[in-house]
Amino acid sequence: MLKYLIVSLAICAVAFADGEWKPKTADEIKQIRIECLKEHPLSADQISSLKQLSFPDESDVRQYLLCSATKLDIFCTHQGYHADRLAKQFKMDLSEEEALQIAQGCIDANEQKSPADVWAFRGHKCMMASKIGDRVRAYVKAKQEEAAKKA
After folding, report:
1. pTM of the full predicted structure?
2. CA-based Rg of the chain, rounded to a whole angstrom?
3. 105 to each of 19, 83, 87, how far by Cα in Å?
């Protein structure tokens, strides 16, 4: 068990070495979502909710969000979210400083000792309730309206 913990922490440390991390592109995010849906299938209702940016606190949804955050390299199951990466990935039209303040306010050290999916969901829920979540919803709505006009 100790060896597993040491190896896991080392992997997280390597994954979070900030020198090489860059925000993911829209195409990379889309691919990650596809991979995580294959690994953690969701019901049609759950997918519909996610498309409306409503995230039910259900095990399947939490596992999908954990998968996505891990593959985005913004969350590690031993260290949690990295505020600097959250800010860079999801700042939208906010300054990086403001986005970083929001991210720092949403992450915790998991004092509750929650399972990783619950821990990741808690941070995600906070981010979606912030200015960043407002910007994400506006962006997605604009993209959906744009797609509807083309159809």
Report:
1. 0.83
2. 16
3. 24, 9, 11
